[in-house]
TrEMBL record:
It comes from Panthera leo (Lion). This is 2-methoxy-6-polyprenyl-1,4-benzoquinol methylase, mitochondrial. The keyword DNA-binding does not apply. GO terms for biological process: methylation. Pfam families: Ubie_methyltran. Keywords: Acetylation, Membrane, Methyltransferase, Mitochondrion, Mitochondrion inner membrane, S-adenosyl-L-methionine, Transferase, Ubiquinone biosynthesis.
Length: 342
């Protein structure tokens, strides 16, 4: 049986016919679901079993039991455990492997996510699938630098202060983050443990909390955060649509969703080189550095299973977000999707 890496479809003729038909099928499904959502009357759920929505529900129930884990087909119950095992196994080497695999470029992509966010003073951020804290630490650096800059400008504006008054102002500064906070939420204890150790070693204390939790069932109240980020996390979640709905629920009205994830390379030459590198080099690096071929094989396969930019944009819209846009980086190797809860 042939497996088409781009479509993620397993079918004897997958390479020839499946990419287009699968894309078309999922496109039609999404359009249909939107149309039906618009047609639903308030308070009345369309569940007419013989009707089109009933059929959709039935087929969803049938499909609901199976999903993919990389290129493997597994039951939905199995997937969570397998993903957990991957990140439990790679946690200790996660950061060094990220640098090795991406030649350090993941740092630039994460910086770009922060520049896109441009947090304002007092921003409450939830970083889901936050792992070892890369996004959270960048956020804290950003808001601290911003707050310091503001403080300096204010002091400069007050020309005739004595040095004692200036020193006092600095000492009285209780919150160097200007009220901003970040919560890192991840399902994996080992990843969080490494994150906490890193935070301790780098001296991050204030404004940072670590919470064990599932992106599909976030342990937070509604309308709580200004920004929700998820970096290289959402492709590992079993029900992406559910995770998106949870993101929407916990954001305040006006809040922003930002997702950094691997995406579809749009240049055929780069795509070939990238496939070669991913499948021939990354698992070998995984074996040599982390003694774990399988986990890194899963990582590259899971990237190929994730929907391309436009399709993911529609999924975000389906979850209720508005003004959804995306930017492809490094020829589409990754993309940042953004949406607002309005
Ligand atoms: C590739 S790491 C990304 C870590 C971090 N965001 C970064 O960019 O370095 C993926 C993370 O997603 C987490 N994860 C997977 N499934 C999850 C779920 N259902 N809910 C929350 N976190 C999940 C894993 O435990 C892992 O820490």
């Amino acid at each position: 049986m042939q497996h088409d890496v781009r479509s993620g479809c397993c079918h004897p003729t997958a390479k020839m016919a499946a990419p287009r038909s699968c894309a078309l099928w999922s496109y039609c499904g999404r359009r249909w679901s939107r149309l039906m959502r618009c047609c639903e009357l308030p308070g009345i759920r369309s569940s007419w079993p013989g009707g089109p929505l009933g059929a959709r529900q039935l087929s969803q129930e049938k499909q609901a039991t199976e999903t993919h884990f990389g290129f493997e087909t597994v039951s939905e119950e199995e997937k969570g455990g397998k993903v957990y095992h991957v990140f439990e196994s790679v946690a200790k080497k996660y950061d060094v492997m990220n640098d090795m695999m991406s030649l350090g470029i993941h740092r630039i992509w994460k910086d770009l996510l922060l520049w896109k966010m441009r947090p304002f003073p007092g921003t409450q951020l939830l970083d889901v699938a936050g792992g070892t804290g890369d996004i959270a630490f960048r956020f804290l650096n950003y808001v601290q630098a911003q707050h310091k800059g503001k403080q300096k400008r204010q002091l400069r504006a007050q020309q005739n202060l004595s040095w004692e008054e200036i020193a006092k102002k600095y000492q009285n500064e209780e919150d160097p983050l200007g009220g901003s906070r970040v919560v890192v939420c991840d399902i994996n204890k080992e990843m969080l443990k490494i994150g906490k150790q890193k935070a301790h070693a780098r001296g991050y204390k204030a404004g940072l909390a670590w919470v064990l939790g599932d992106a599909e069932e976030l342990p937070f109240d509604d309308d709580k955060f200004d920004v929700y980020t998820i970096a290289f996390g959402i492709r590992n979640v079993t029900h992406i649509d559910q995770a998106l709905q949870e993101a929407h629920r916990v954001l305040k009205p006006g809040g922003r969703f930002l997702c950094l994830e691997f995406s579809q390379v749009n240049n055929p030459l780069i795509s070939r080189l990238y496939d070669l590198y991913s499948f021939q080099v990354i698992p070998v690096l995984g074996e040599v550095i982390a003694g774990d071929w399988k986990s890194y094989q899963y990582l590259v396969e899971s990237i190929r299973q994730f929907p391309p930019q436009e399709e993911f944009k529609e999924m975000i819209e389906d979850a209720g977000f508005e003004k959804v846009t995306y930017e492809s980086l490094t020829s589409g190797i990754v993309a940042i999707h953004s949406g607002f809860k309005l």
